[in-house]
Amino acid sequence: MSRPAIAEPRRAALPLRRWQAMTLAERQAWLAWLFLLPALLVVVAVAMVPLVQTLYFSFTDKRLGALEPEQWIGLENYRFLLTDPLWWTAVKVTVQFTVITVVLEFLLGLLIALVVNSRFPGRGPMRAAMLVPWAIPTVLSAQMWKWMYNDIFGVINDLLKRAGLIEQNIAWLARPDTSLIAVASIDIWKTTPFVALLLLAGLQVIPDELYEAATVDGASRIRQFFTITLPLLRPAIVVALIFRTLDALRVFDVFYVLFGARPDMQTMAVYAQNYIVAFSDVGYGSAISVAIFLVIAIFVVAYVTTLKVEVQT
Amino acid sequence: MRLASAQRRDLRRRLSRILFYVVLAIIAIYLVFPFYWAIRSAIVPDSVQFATPVVYWPENPSLENFRKVLATGQFRRALLNSAIVAGTVTLLSLAVGAMGAYALGRFRFRGSTPVRYIILSMTMFPSISVLGGLYTLITQFGLYNSLGALVYSYLIFTLPFTVWVLMTFFRQLPRDLEEAAYVDGASPFQTFWRIMLPLSAPGLVTTGLLAFIAAWNEFLYALSFTQTPDKRTITLAIFYFSPQTGGGFEIPWGQMMAATVIVTLPLIVLTLIFQRRIIAGLTAGAVKG
């Protein structure tokens, strides 16, 4: 408070003079960082700090609500993780789910994209309707299907019985051998149209002249598909595959709604969330989170090296 | 002979046309049937709901389930909570994200490439991988079981995405308008606020909508960071749906489907209106093969 008032004008003048002495490029850089500052602060607060903390906790025995502060235990959590049968069950369930859904969503999505790409009346509304399953919350679509899969009053059992495919009601969501099919069918329903839209966007940039020229040269429809459509669709296919795989590996909502934390039907994300929140075991839960991150990283590296993706920035 | 082969070709074409429409119909039914079933289950009374064999076309539809759901305070509260959280997150992401995107999209400066890479990697970041850290932070700062915890944590997926998509929008804008503004003596902030922001309004609408939908649909953080019913968002309310009105032996599926229809309808309307922009925004994404 006792600062001499006379110093104020000089303090204010100095940055201004420095600003005027700057080159245009220097000024631009300052301005850019100024514009970026709020976003960077938010990123640090909501992502960087929690990320570093999670990494740190994974090397400790941190428990929420514990009286004593956490202790550094080195790789103890990770050592336990490697021999934890429930973790490996979760990995198995997640990877099985990922492979089933990504493959089927891609094949079905491609079929739908090819069909919708040809001209027919009602194409516009059809395209619009395809976005709808994607837009509704996964929790809601999971509940809708949970009701359809209901073992006594469910419409799926009823339809299958009418078609003569089954004789007795099946408890789809309770039986270990049908649970995975049931949950995969929900994800496929919700996400295939979205995959189809991504592929459709790729199909629409392929010029018609290519097909016309191929037809003149006598190439069959099937040949055209493999020599024109598929190679030119590659960028869209790569995007769709990577997006879907990353999403499937971190799946949480649909499994949690259908199975809660049932030991034989937990995904990696359900397993981690359960440890952190239900058991307050932040240390081990964080180690699971880091492990999930590593599993996803392995998939990304595999994709990038096999499909030769280039990242555009 | 020639006539016969022409006829055969004609027949084949007609057959493949029929096959095409059969495939189309199967796809359409597969897409639409679950929605039909949700609506049918919402408008039948429990006596029909829990009857075997299943009734496919209800004779006496009633809005009883809708009335019951809307009468519960918890459901209305959850709708309000979701609107507050998703609205706040969207506005914050747009305000902060547009400025950041402007810097990254229109300025050349050292350090911009690493920042872009960080933002890009965050758009693919799994929310679960920071749960331990977030949960501890939120408890430490007394945010546990508050809507503030959700606003704070949802920014982790809405902000990077907003920056990324808006950046591509800003890049597409012509240079001359911006330069004209500078020549006329406008400050950088005036140029951003008066010229660039209005020009990128379509981009703001798209990203805002996508951020809103993402926040509205979120489940993992809502489940982890809240506890009491009055703090539940809509996804949690529908997850925890339990018999409240009328002691039933089953989960009140009719009411739950009514709630689902109520929550889904605005989303369907929004996506149908903005479908072209949504697709453009989603495919303006990150990776190029």
Write the layout of secondary structure elements.
The complex is a heterodimer of chains A (313) and B (289).
Chain A (H helix, E strand, L loop, with lengths): L6 H15 L2 H34 L18 H7 L2 H33 L5 H8 L1 H4 L2 H11 L6 H8 L13 H28 L4 H9 L4 H29 L3 H7 L8 H11 L3 H26 L2 E2 L2
Helix pairs in contact in A: 2-14, 4-9, 4-11, 7-12, 9-11, 11-14, 13-14
Chain B lengths: L1 H41 L3 H4 L14 H8 L1 H34 L5 H12 L7 H10 L6 H26 L2 H9 L4 H12 L1 H17 L2 H6 L8 H6 L13 H31 L3 E2 L1
How is this structure best described in words?
The complex is a heterodimer of chains A (313) and B (289). Chain A is mainly alpha-helical. Chain A folds into two domains: 7-57, no CATH class; 84-307, Orthogonal Bundle (MetI-like fold), CATH 1.10.3720.10. Chain A is built from 14 helices and one strand, in the order H-H-H-H-H-H-H-H-H-H-H-H-H-H-E. Chain A has helices at 7-21, 24-57, 76-82, 85-117, 123-130, 132-135, 138-148, 155-162, 176-203, 208-216, 221-249, 253-259, 268-278, 282-307; one strand spanning 310-311. In chain A, helix 4 (85-117) runs antiparallel to helix 11 (221-249) and helix 9 crosses helix 11 (221-249). Chain A is flat, with a radius of gyration of 27 Å. The two termini of chain A are 49 Å apart. Mean pLDDT of chain A is 88; it is low at 1-10. Chain B has 289 residues and is mainly alpha-helical. Chain B folds into two domains: 2-42; 65-283, MetI-like fold (Orthogonal Bundle), CATH 1.10.3720.10. Chain B is 75% helix and 1% strand. In chain B, helix 1 (2-42) packs across helix 13 (253-283). The longest helix of chain B is centred in the N-terminal third of the chain and has 41 residues, at 2-42. The mean pLDDT of chain B is 87. Chains A and B meet through helix 2, helix 4, helix 5, helix 6 and helix 7 of A and helix 1, helix 4, helix 5, helix 6 and helix 7 of B.
